[in-house]
Amino acid sequence: MNHNSTLTRESSSDAEDDEDDERGFACEVSYETGRVIAAVSGELDLESAPGLERHLRALIMLPLNSITLDLTRLSFMDSAGLAALVRVHQMAAELRMDFAIEHPNDRVVWMLDLTRLGAAVVSGPS
Which of 66, 73, 103, 71 lies closest to 84 in space, CA to CA? Predict the structure, then answer.
């Protein structure tokens, strides 16, 4: 059985243009038996990272075997976003849950490699 949910954060800008969509943040979650895929889009930054971390920590507490983050549509990630991903990975590891990151852009791969997390969790071509 599949279920879906979405976490969003609108941009702090009041502009109604194409750039606004890129600056916003969303996490669309697809549930499958024993598995969750969280597709993250927009900017993972100081403003959005705490919400994503809370959401992912709640998902990790479900009876799951794995959690996968699809970063295909992630446009930006700062150190707060990186720290949130590191903490979520640590929690998943403590619970012996598989944790993977798919399709990160080159900048995100570089940031993950700084923490030595990249080789452990990045799957598929960037």
Answer: 71
Cβ atoms within 10 A of the Cβ of 43, count? 21
Task: Let me know if 27 is exposed, middle or buried by CB neighbors in 10 A (0-12, 13-18, 19+).
Answer: buried
Q: Identify the CA nearest to 103 among candidates 72, 66, 68, 73.
A: 72
At 37, which amino acid appears?
I
Terminus-to-terminus CA distance in the chain, angstroms?
Answer: 29
Residue 75 has pLDDT above 60, yes or no: yes
Q: What is the pTM of this model?
A: 0.79
Residue found under tokens 């969790």:
121
pLDDT of 10 strictly over 50 = no
Question: pLDDT tens digits for 56-66?
Answer: 999 999 999 99
